[in-house]
Design a protein that fits this description.
Elements: H1 3-19, H2 24-39, H3 43-57, H4 63-77, H5 80-92, H6 98-113, H7 117-134, H8 139-142, H9 144-150, H10 160-169, H11 173-179, H12 181-201, H13 216-226, H14 228-242, H15 248-265, H16 271-305, H17 307-316, H18 322-337, H19 342-360, H20 364-379, H21 386-394, H22 401-424, H23 427-437
Helix pairs in contact: 1-2, 1-17, 2-3, 2-16, 3-16, 4-10, 4-15, 4-16, 5-6, 5-13, 6-7, 6-9, 6-12, 7-21, 9-22, 10-19, 11-23, 12-22, 14-15, 16-19, 17-19, 18-19, 18-20, 19-20, 20-22, 21-22
């Protein structure tokens, strides 16, 4: 049977099941069971399916996912994140568009502490958007910065999605985490340039207003209490990887432990906070692990049937440049992100894309960084990006989806610019990785 028939037979039912509302994990499970039975020889295929599923979730490299979730939940539930925003507010003072810039600054800091983009939207949206609206900020400058900056959680370690990518694509998680730092900061810089430029051209979008004067001593005191301790948390995750002291799994453990210690020192680690943190992070982690187990088996099913290799041969024979093919892959990820969540996209495309990229001779870490930016772009792209609906849930009453779409578009354009820069200047990704692992 030709490879394209096999892919149609496997992918068709998968898309149908997800379209009718079956959870992603169970959609993969159903397709894997039927596919293994039909394409891998009946009961022996089912036995192999069970073995593949066990192997896929018993890997040590999956540990960071649960630990990063604990970090994020502990940050939000203990109120450490709120303290961080209050301190940033004191420093931005009367700067025009300060609340929008605060959203970007908060997004960057939350990215280094939680790796949870939807959590960032929920916190920033519920805490900053009402204040922005009260101060006369228009929708493009109250909603957009939160949508854009929250996606930085995908790009700046710790990033659970980067870990998932490394597992599915069988790439070095450590190299991916190092490679995405500069692209994430580049995206934040593009957001800041856009906000400052548009506020200058259209000052009515972010009116200036009087704020209580805060003395320098008060700013320094708040920084010492609420921000400086967080540098220890950041070091415990990113610093130990940079210095070669710990693997990503060990760094995730030290990061989660340091956040809990910080919450305890602030006298906020109550039994309720600890219990809610563990319960919520366990729920999310189990869901992610179920999806990963289905995806890994799915990719093995594609490889066993020869569909993966058939597609590679077909792509290799296309009469356009290898660079153009890679760029089309990234554009496809963005298009899929408009109607699907990040995990299903990764699980469907990575088993096909990564072998092609490697076959072309490109650095897979470079591709992985662009891929994650594309995932983030798709999540904030109209009409059905997941981040848009989370924003709708926390936005002030009367906010329409049209308002959210309009606010998101400029930041999606910033993401496109970031992708183009990474595509034409791969050293943005590869140089830090080569420097780190030389």
């Amino acid at each position: 049977m030709d490879w394209y028939y096999i892919i149609a037979i496997i992918l068709g039912p998968l898309f149908v099941l997800m379209f009718v509302g079956l959870p992603v994990a169970f959609s993969f499970l159903a397709v894997n069971i039927v596919g293994s039975f039909v394409l891998m020889g009946g009961l022996p295929g089912i036995k192999q399916l069970v073995l593949n599923t066990v192997d896929s979730v018993s890997s040590f490299v999956l540990i960071p996912i649960a630990l990063f979730m604990i970090m994020g939940e502990a940050m939000f539930r203990s109120g450490i994140a709120i303290d961080l925003m209050d301190t940033l507010d004191k420093w931005f003072g009367r700067l025009r568009g300060r609340l929008a810039l605060m959203a970007v600054g908060g997004g960057v800091l939350f990215s280094t502490l939680t790796g949870n983009s939807m959590g960032s939207i929920a916190l920033l949206g519920s805490s900053l958007t009402p204040e922005m609206e009260k101060r006369g900020y228009k929708k493009p400058m109250s909603l957009g910065p939160i949508l854009g900056s929250s996606g930085l959680a995908i790009m700046i370690p710790p990033s659970a999605l980067a870990v998932v990518l490394g597992v599915i694509a069988e790439l070095s998680i450590r190299r991916i985490l190092i490679g995405i730092i500069i692209p994430g900061l580049l995206m934040a810089l593009l957001y800041i340039i856009y906000i400052l430029g548009r506020c200058r051209l259209q000052p009515e979008l972010a009116p200036s207003f009087d704020v209580p004067k805060v003395s320098l001593s008060e700013k320094l005191s708040a920084t010492a209490i609420n921000i400086l301790p967080l540098t220890f948390v950041i070091f415990s995750v990113v610093g130990v990887i940079f210095l070669g002291i710990a693997t990503p799994s060990e760094a995730a453990a030290t990061g989660a432990f340091s956040v809990l210690i910080l919450a305890a020192l602030k006298l906020r680690l109550t039994f309720k906070v600890f219990g809610d943190t563990m319960f919520s992070s366990a729920n999310i982690s189990v869901m992610v692990l179920l999806i990963i187990s289905g995806a890994m088996t799915f990719s093995q099913l594609l490889a066993f049937t020869g569909a993966t290799y058939g597609m590679i041969d077909a792509v290799m024979s296309i009469d356009i440049s290898n660079e153009a093919i890679v760029f089309l892959m990234i554009m496809l990820v963005i298009l899929m992100g408009m109607v699907m969540g990040p995990l299903p996209i990764m699980l469907i495309t990575l088993p096909i894309f990564i072998p092609i990229v490697i076959q072309f001779g490109f650095d897979p870490i470079w591709f992985a960084a662009m891929y994650l930016v594309a995932i983030e772009t798709g999540a904030t792209s109209p009409p059905f990006g997941a981040a848009l609906f989370v924003m709708k849930g926390v936005a002030p009453k009367g906010t329409t989806m049209g308002d959210i779409y309009g606010a998101a578009v400029p930041f999606v354009i910033c993401d496109f610019i970031a992708i183009l820069l990474l595509f034409f200047i791969p050293e943005i990704v590869t140089y830090p990785v080569d420097l780190m692992f030389k």
